[in-house]
Amino acid sequence: MIWSVSPKPTSDERRKLGSILPVLLRRVEKGMQIVGTHEDVRKKFLAKLMRCHTKVINSAADVLRKAARANAAAAIKPESARTSSATAPSPLDTIPTLSEVIDTRQPDSSSKPPV
């Protein structure tokens, strides 16, 4: 699970992620059902997890596009302008932390099904 939300710099890793996602998501959902996670909590978690996976896959492509644009821009800038120390934000900055993905609050106990 942790690997699935970490950056994927190679196309092979992104392909592997795409191929295992359906099975991974089914297993996570089944596990959440087994431990009695409320349906609303499960749905929210899985939706946020899918957004994380989408960001991981898209961020790799974005990084490659930005690098290509930066290289093209650097190639046409004068030498004195190429010494800038500004850095682009890391793709990791766009991936939420685990605490942002998981809502640890319990749903109202009156709506919780019996275990």
Notes on the protein architecture:
- By secondary structure, the chain is mainly α.
- It is built from 3 helices and no strands.
- It is elongated and about 60 Å long.
- The mean pLDDT is 76.
Concise synopsis of the structure shown:
The protein has 115 residues and is an all-alpha fold. It has helices at 11-34, 39-76, 98-101.
Number of helices: 3
Report the portion of residues in β strands: under 5%
Structural class: mainly alpha
Radius of gyration: 20 Å
Proportion of residues in helical segments:
55-70%
Our measurement of the CA-to-CA distance between the termini, rounded to an integer number of angstroms, reads 26 Å
Query: Stretches where pLDDT falls below 50 for ≥5 residues?
Result: none
Given the C-alpha coordinates, what overall shape results?
elongated
Mean pLDDT score, rounded? 76
Q: Would you list the SSEs in sequence order as H and E?
A: HHH
Biggest sheet details? none
Number of strands: 0
Keywords:
single chain, 115 residues, mainly alpha
How do the helices and strands line up, and which of them pair or pack?
Elements: H1 11-34, H2 39-76, H3 98-101
Helix pairs in contact: 1-2
